[in-house]
Amino acid sequence: MTENDDFDTPWKDVLQALFPAAMQRFFPAVYESIDWARGHQFLDRELRKITPRAKTGRRHVDLLVRVYGHGGDERWLLVHVEVQVQRDAALPGRMFVYAYRIFDRYQRPCASLVILADASPRWRPRTFRTGLWGSELTMRFPTAKLLDLDPDDPAHAGNPFNAIIAAHRRALETQGRPTARLRWKIEIVRALYARGFDQQVVRDVFRFIDWALTLPVELEPTFHQTLDEIEEEFGMPYVTSIERRGFERGHAEGHLEALVTVLRHQLRLRFGPLDEATEARIATATSDQLLRWAERVIEADSVEGVFGD
Fold first, then answer.
1. Are 10 and 258 in contact (CB under 8 A)?
2. Distance between CA 202 and CA 137 in Å, rounded?
3. Which of the chain's ends, N or C, has fewer CB atoms near its CB within 10 Å?
4. Helix locations, the chain, DSSP H
5. How would DSSP label each residue in 52-88?
């Protein structure tokens, strides 16, 4: 498959891996209002219990996050973030349904935020409104439109989500233009390495870039050869050779990469960040192993319990 327009899973993975940076880039006022020193917690399991049933296939990503504000207040707050990757007339109503279900369940203030990652410049939903016979209910939600954001904005030069913005926008622009996509992929990866981010940050962002800017099989060797040159130039193999073999095999077998991504996501939610040995084991696994491990995640007490025979 030369085109990969299924951004849902990579968006969720990178948001969970780099949530503070995402808030800083997309919703700076919200970022400043959160006391990040007190930590944050993803409530995926709880969110699934209140998710509205979709009439069609899902084309959005949702996160529910517990955070704390400044000022020493012990009460925790909630942030609901949705990433919408295509126009959807049901979005405002869905945001309202999420908001009232979240409030009904937790009785806590919740900020409802939307990242608009679609390709339609004029589509900018911000409000849900309903009413009858003099009664009226209105909900407003802040949005961040990717098409409005400049990945080269010097005010955000140190934020890794600049590379995410660039990759997503170029993926939309280069559908059906593989040579142009290869050129942009190389440029974005080079810029990512040049920023000098922490190794894990580079790996998290690289996974998004690699997924969003999928190349035809015949162009993959060119990209990986250039990646070798970039890593030699900067003197740091951010993406391990084991991971890279996993990426290459995943492009040849799309279902396998999907399994890898799902398992990584499950393990991070359950046990936190993964060490290099765990990443290597996942990257070199067969599809049968990945399926078996995914089934064990729910009941296992540790990462070792997932991989145990």
1. no
2. 44
3. C
4. 8-17, 19-26, 28-33, 44-50, 91-106, 161-173, 178-194, 199-212, 220-234, 241-252, 254-271, 276-283, 287-296, 303-307
5. PPPSS---EEEEEEEEEBSSS---EEEEEEEEE-S--
CB atoms within 10 A of CB 206: 22
Q: Is the pLDDT of residue 173 over 60?
A: yes
At 306 the pLDDT is 86
Confidence label for 308 from pLDDT (cuts 50, 70 and 90): confident
Close Cβ partners of 277 (under 8 Å, ≥ 6 residues apart): none
Q: With 0-12 CB in 10 A as exposed, 13-18 as middle and 19+ as buried, what is 274?
A: middle
Strand partners for 144: 115
Ordered by start, the domain boundaries in the chain are: 19-148, 154-307
